[in-house]
Amino acid sequence: MSNPTSTEYEKYYVPEQSKMAVMATIGLILSIFGAASVMNDKTFGDGITSGSWTILIVGLFWFMAVLFAWFRQAIRENIAGMNSAQLKKSYVLGMFWFIFSEVMFFFAFFGALFYVRTLVGPWLAGEGEGGRMNGLLWEGFEYNWPMALTPQEAVGGAASQPIANNGSFTSAETTMAFSDAAAWYKWLPLWNTIILLSSSFTCHLAHMGILDGNKKKFNLWLGITVALGFIFICVQFYEYYEAYAHFGLTLNSGIYGSTFFMLTGFHGFHVFMGMTMLAIQLMRSLKGHFTADDHFGFEASSWYWHFVDVVWVFLFLFVYIL
Amino acid sequence: MGDHHHGPAKGISRWLFTTNHKDIGTMYLWFSFAMFILGGAFAMIIRAELFQPGMQLVDPAFFNQMTTLHGLVMVFGAIMPSFVGLANWMIPMMIGAPDMALPRMNNWSFWILPPAFLLLASTLFMEGGAPAFGWTFYAPLSTTYAPPSVTIFIFCIHVLGLSSIMGSINIIATVMNMRAPGMTYMKMPLFVWTWLITAFLLVAVMPVLAGAVTMMLMDIHFGTSFFSAAGGGDPVLFQHIFWFFGHPEVYIIILPAFGVVSQIIPAFSRKPLFGYDSMVYATASIAFLSFIVWAHHMYTVGMPIAGELFFMYATMLIAVPTGVKVFNWISTMWRGALTFETPMLFCMGFLVLFTIGGFTGLMLSIAPSDFQYHDSYFVVAHFHYVMVAGAVFSMTAAVYYWLPKWCGRMYNETMGKTHFWISFIGFNLTFFPQHFVGLAGMPRRIPDYALQFADFNMMSSIGAFIYGASQILFLYNVIATIVSGKPTSEEKVWDGAEGLEWTVPTPAPYHTFETPPKIDPAHAHS
């Protein structure tokens, strides 16, 4: 290095010009414009046009390709030894605050769930301070959770409700709540909890392995973690299939269906992301990218994995059990 | 790759592919000024329509699109990006860092903004028109009764949130990790402190906003019932989620403004900032309180009385740390060797007018009084005193203050002072009368009004045109400075200014502090 003081303070690597940002922007904007067009075609138009689908799909593939190239470049820089200890700490901070922002995203949906369950439900049934007006609007509605009958059904359907509406909401015949203690082993959420909690444990074992420099142990446990994540997603898909096909539980099933599918759906999507991240780390490990003291790609993915695990614990408590 | 010491690249690629915090800061600043002009043009249409009672120029549906887009463009396009631009330019120079912590992501945070706003503005030409439900987009106006352009709007909000979150993560990582050795937290300039706390607020609440618009999206297109009572949801739920984002958001806008003022007032008082530590703690207290006061925007929706009381008292508490700040700024000036160059004039305008806005905020915080003020022009007057005279005035002060450092040329002081006085008079002429029409019962967001409000509204409109026109003088002054201002090469452009940014050459070189500067341990914060 040309600078004489750089020995006492490692030089921070500021990358030269990069096309990544602009390319990623093109992909992102195409994706959102495509997605908005698909949805508007569906809701306000005469069915989804192939043009809208094309924009969306091209945008998504473009975006993923740029992300791939971007991460590849960051990895190559690290392998080339360009990342100082200080830069690595920037990545750690970046990942930490990214996960914090994800926590806050789930917080919005959990907040909605708590608000509806503790305040809105009773008010719609005419109880409490908010109940005076609602008692007149939704006569006959009784509140319980999971909601057995939506307010709309209580007054006799969308046509006879006294205020404007944006659709018809029919409650589920069967909900996902734990009901049959005798057949507990048939209750999928319990198995999913066991699967996901063990995957967090196996992920930790993998981490122990790489810290010891034991690559075999690392690859084995990481592979098991990815497999458990995959099984979780499959079970979740089966649960959704059951909900739609047999339980009458859909997105249209009032606020119970809304909160159930949005919370579990976004969680499932995050499991998918976490699983993909871990799978990529496994491939990288097989290519020999990691050492005992340099494996941040895996560490960041594992933090993310533990995060989706913790979210599941809250989901299991507040969506399935309580 | 390796150890380069390049200047900027040539041509357009310099701006498209840059990783340099100064380039990115410059792009943010110009973009936000463009949005300021666009949002201002919408405001001019609003004021032209309200010049006289009766329907004058535009039809009511278009008027609603104007109020909506004016708010969205000003909040998300003008004020927020302008302060992000300032953070990009100044934070690395203030803490002795070579650049932002994550330079490529920094570029991405900027470049997703212009196309998002282009999409948002293009909804004006869509079938059904642009969003017309106000910048607060309350359900069911924004769900059941929304035009199809709401879908574009929702995705644009997602993109703006993404940009803010990435920008904030970058700022947090920079401040936590890139300070020069010896630059301890309690030695950081206050602008850096206020931005660190602002960035934390942004990372905490932008995802909540993303959640809110996602629920809207699902309600509109996929049959969920988050905001529909018929399915067991609640439109008021939307307001709770929105304001859980929205209230910290107003501090996201004003805290960096506080930081700017805390840099400029000491410089022109030739005294260190009074009560630095208490300024830091006051900022943190305001940030904390901002999370537990959101429902003071919703006193009239029929909350339980316990809720009204809690949010009322919590809101009033904010006056304490804010008062600490105002008194500290005044104490800084006490017995200082004061001079009133343009940046200081704008800070004086900020101090007086922001305090007025703070007091009307206290009036609004009283739940029983708010039942009268709610959704009236009094509210419009209140938040323009804190948004325009607070955030925009301090941003303008910041541009005049640091422009010589950025481009190595001095702006025209007479023109700057003229800009201030025209802005000050135009602003007050616009918004002071709105207090009166609001208290007398004129509702906000309407294209027509009762005859007794005619005189005050005409004054408001004339004031708005004056204020709007004065910004053209500002634009001219800035461009004239960059092109042909009087060159200056003094490191310390202002004799009273303190801080690391005044130790580097003027104009600031493309790369500053490639190796960290020595921080004098005895030297206090600037």
From TrEMBL, chain A:
InterPro entries documented for this protein: Cyt_c/ubiquinol_Oxase_su3 (IPR024791), Cyt_c_oxase_su3_dom (IPR033945), Cyt_c_oxidase-like_su3 (IPR000298), Cyt_c_oxidase_su3-like_sf (IPR035973), Cyt_c_oxidase_su3_a-hlx (IPR013833)
Residues in Heme-copper oxidase subunit III family profile domain copies: 8-322
One GO BP: aerobic electron transport chain
GO cellular component, one term: membrane
EC number: 7.1.1.9
Keyword Transmembrane helix recorded: yes
Bilayer topology annotation: Multi-pass membrane protein
SUPFAM superfamilies for this protein: Cytochrome c oxidase subunit III-like
A GO molecular-function annotation: cytochrome-c oxidase activity
UniProt entry tagged with the keyword Hydrolase: no
Transmembrane segments: 20-39, 51-71, 91-116, 188-206, 218-238, 258-282, 303-321
Lineage top rank: taxon: Bacteria
Keywords linked to the UniProt accession: Membrane, Translocase, Transmembrane, Transmembrane helix
PROSITE patterns: COX3
Protein's cellular compartments: Membrane
Family listed: Belongs to the cytochrome c oxidase subunit 3 family.
Official protein name in the record: cytochrome-c oxidase
Source organism: Pseudohalioglobus sediminis
UniProtKB/TrEMBL annotation, chain B:
Cited Pfam families: COX1
Catalytic activity: 4 Fe(II)-[cytochrome c] + O2 + 8 H(+)(in) = 4 Fe(III)-[cytochrome c] + 2 H2O + 4 H(+)(out)
InterPro entries to which the protein is assigned, alphabetical: Cyt_c_oxase-like_su1_dom, Cyt_c_oxase-like_su1_sf, Cyt_C_Oxase_1, Cyt_c_Oxase_su1_BS, Cyt_c_oxase_su1_dom, Cyt_c_oxidase_su1_bac
Domain Cytochrome oxidase subunit I profile: 15-520
Function: Cytochrome c oxidase is the component of the respiratory chain that catalyzes the reduction of oxygen to water. Subunits 1-3 form the functional core of the enzyme complex. CO I is the catalytic subunit of the enzyme. Electrons originating in cytochrome c are transferred via the copper A center of subunit 2 and heme A of subunit 1 to the bimetallic center formed by heme A3 and copper B.
Transmembrane portions of the chain: 28-48, 68-91, 112-138, 150-178, 190-218, 250-268, 280-299, 305-324, 345-367, 379-403, 424-442, 462-483
Matching CDD domains: Cyt_c_Oxidase_I
Pathway membership, UniProt: Energy metabolism; oxidative phosphorylation
Protein name: Cytochrome c oxidase subunit 1
Keywords assigned by UniProt, alphabetized: Cell membrane, Copper, Electron transport, Heme, Iron, Membrane, Metal-binding, Oxidoreductase, Respiratory chain, Translocase, Transmembrane, Transmembrane helix, Transport
E.C. number: 7.1.1.9
Membrane-topology annotation of the record: Multi-pass membrane protein
Enzyme class, first EC level, given as a word: translocase
GO cellular component, one term: plasma membrane
Classification via Gene3D superfamilies: Cytochrome c oxidase-like, subunit I domain
Molecular function GO labels: cytochrome-c oxidase activity; heme binding; metal ion binding; oxidoreductase activity
Compartments where located: Cell membrane; Membrane
Protein family membership: Belongs to the heme-copper respiratory oxidase family.
A GO BP entry: respiratory electron transport chain
